[in-house]
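Worked example 3 (structure in, sequence out).
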């Protein structure tokens, strides 16, 4: 059974990935959609009745969810053609003022969750399959007010690039997607009050982002940073010393 798996599937970029998979990959026999909110997943499955969508309601911030998913995979033994590792958790603010629960959730979802999903799913991927790890432009430089989040995204960036290198001999590609601003439920347009400069940065078209990310992943690309402005930012982060970049990001993020 050839399937795609999408985590963080209940809204935003994850939901857009589902739409693109439905439109572009007709050979998939099932799409497994993973998120905490079961009712959202059921709504998605009901909306796209012509497609075999399987809701898997688990919380990737909790260890028991990894066991639940492992048991499902062992029972079904699917061939995972596409893995969209998109689940994420973001809270922005001064580190010393953040709730400890939010800090732990960022680490659990963005680091533990993404790592666990890759480890659980890779044994079911074969030559020609590919994965996408959703990172962020926040991975390219330390960002005050996003200290934990940007650090977690640097982890996903390095994880994705290292996995890609390990898996090349098996014919499996991993692309790390590093988008900037998107109008999502996690980060709705105009929502960041303490730093209005963020809201002035370009907002990306999620449909275009998902379509191009899938195309580039299938072609074997390593990293995709959508949008001219964010590509420029990525270049700047490579040539400007980190001590200066962190001062720039402090002003604009």
């Amino acid at each position: 059974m050839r399937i795609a798996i999408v985590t963080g599937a209940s809204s935003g970029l994850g939901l857009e990935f589902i739409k693109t998979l439905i439109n572009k990959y007709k050979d998939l026999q099932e799409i497994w959609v993973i998120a905490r909110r079961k009712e959202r997943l059921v709504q998605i499955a009901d909306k796209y009745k012509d497609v075999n969508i399987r809701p898997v309601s688990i919380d990737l911030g909790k260890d028991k969810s990894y066991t639940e998913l492992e048991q499902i995979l062992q029972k079904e033994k699917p061939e995972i053609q596409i893995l969209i590792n998109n689940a994420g958790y973001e809270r922005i603010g001064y580190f010393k003022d953040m709730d400890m629960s939010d800090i732990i959730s960022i680490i659990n979802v963005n680091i533990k969750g993404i790592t666990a999903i890759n480890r659980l799913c890779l044994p079911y991927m074969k030559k020609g399959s590919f994965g996408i790890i959703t990172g962020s432009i926040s991975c390219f430089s330390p960002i005050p007010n996003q200290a934990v989040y940007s650090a977690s995204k640097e982890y996903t960036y390095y994880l994705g690039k290292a996995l890609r290198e390990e898996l090349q001999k098996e014919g499996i590609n991993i692309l790390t997607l590093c988008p900037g601003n998107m109008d999502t439920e996690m980060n709705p347009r105009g929502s960041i009050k303490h730093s209005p400069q963020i809201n002035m940065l370009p907002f990306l078209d999620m449909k275009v982002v998902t379509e191009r990310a899938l195309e580039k992943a299938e072609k074997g690309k390593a990293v995709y940073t959508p949008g001219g402005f964010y590509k420029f930012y990525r270049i700047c982060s490579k040539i400007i010393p980190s001590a200066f970049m962190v001062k720039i990001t402090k002003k604009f993020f």
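Notes: The mean pLDDT is 93. The chain has nine helices and seven strands.
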